[in-house]
Each structure stands twice: as structure tokens, then as C-alpha cells.
């Protein structure tokens, strides 16, 4: 039972480089989320999706892009890496549809630790 | 706007003693409330939630939480702490009219043997 799988686990980027953080889930969940976690700050929502082909901005979307072409995958793209994007990134998914979807617990991957130097 | 506060960055408790991790929230409508736990180098794991119904909610690993609407609180409790309960705990809230969860800043629980 894989759940939510994130790759890579660690990455070091140079300023200005781009990369894609991969996230896939095998639970057939409609909802998927990207968060960043900074020390003492909790989790901040970057983007989320309520189903394939539908994405929406969260609290801190600047500098990131997402796509959702399938139910399983929800990649996060950093186009021009900046030191402020050094963080731990978590992908999560939850079941449900429509307004009830947000009542369900979210299942998290183990994170991607990203450093930008 | 919705927000959640965890007033204690660190809570220390002796093994076998009861533990409480505090959480207060602010929403414009009815709240949906969650507790998650995070172990080192791992993602968050769901512990329990309050959507509606009984104010006392029971969850995984012997944890429970009490919803108090008048005090806008949702404190996490356990009658007898274990060393293995040592972890980072997050409270989260969602206004029923919104799709997004807002997380607190987390409370580091340390259970001393």
C-alpha cells in the first residue's frame, strides 16, 4: 500500500534553476494538495486540486505552478528557484467530492527536502 | 478568514502523566477541526477530527480532543502519556464554506521517561 509517494526525497538547486517535484497517489483520491513547511511556521498551502484538470491557488502560490492531468499525479513546478523557496514540501491527498471533500483526513507523503543555494 | 493558534511551542510531560496540547481557532462559520502528528522526517498523520456531533472526539493511539464552541478551542488530550508519543502535533481548521485547511504552527511534545 504505497499511499502518497513523493520524489525526490532530497534536492539541492542553484538559484535560477528549475525543477519538478513529483507526487503520485494510488488511493483514487479526488483532492490533492501541495504544502511547504518552514520551521515554526506550520504548513502553508501552495496549490490544490479537486480533480483532474482542476487546480486552484492556495495561500502561497507565487513562484510555483501545478498541473493535474490524471487523478493519480499532481506535480509541482519551480520555474526560477530562489533562496526563499528552501523548504520541505509535502504532497497530500484526500477522498470525497464537492463540498464534503474537505471533511476527510488528508494523507501525506514523506516530503521533499529542497535547498536552494 | 480562518486561523488557528497553538500557544505552546513545546510541551514536556512525564511518562504515565496526562497530556494536553492546546489549540484555539477562529472561523466565520462552523468549524471542521483536525489533529495531525508528525514524526521526524515523515509526513503528517491524521489523529482525529471534529465535524459535528459529540464534543468529545476519540482518535488513534488513545488520543482524544474536546470541542468547546464557547471558548473556540479544540485541545488534544491523552490520559497517560507514552515516550513514543513524543512528536510534533498540528491542529488544523477549516471553515465549512471553504476548501482549504489552515494549520497551526505546531507543538513539540516530549514525553520524559
Structure description:
The complex is a heterodimer of chains A (117) and B (113). Chain A has strands at residues 4-7, 10-13, 19-25, 31-37, 43-51, 54-57, 64-66, 76-78, 87-94, 107-108, 112-116. By secondary structure, chain A is an all-beta fold. In chain A, the strands form two sheets. In chain A, strands 2, 4, 5, 6, 9, 10 and 11 form a seven-stranded mixed β-sheet that branches. The radius of gyration of chain B is 13 Å and the shape is globular. Helix content of chain B is 0%, strand content 53%. Chain B contains no helices and twelve strands. Chain B has 113 residues and is mainly beta. The interface between A and B is medium-sized, with 26 and 22 residues.
Radius of gyration of chain B: 13 Å
Biggest sheet descriptor of chain B: 6 strands, mixed
**Integer average pLDDT of chain A:** 92
What's the order of the H and E elements of chain A?
EEEEEEEEEEE
Set out the fold topology.
The complex is a heterodimer of chains A (117) and B (113).
Chain A: E1 4-7, E2 10-13, E3 19-25, E4 31-37, E5 43-51, E6 54-57, E7 64-66, E8 76-78, E9 87-94, E10 107-108, E11 112-116
Parallel strand pairs in A: 2-11
Antiparallel strand pairs in A: 1-3, 3-8, 4-5, 4-9, 5-6, 7-8, 9-10, 9-11
Chain B: E1 3-5, E2 10-14, E3 19-21, E4 24-26, E5 31-38, E6 44-50, E7 56-58, E8 64-68, E9 73-78, E10 87-95, E11 102-103, E12 107-112
Parallel strand pairs in B: 2-12
Antiparallel strand pairs in B: 1-4, 3-9, 5-6, 5-10, 7-8, 8-9, 10-11, 10-12
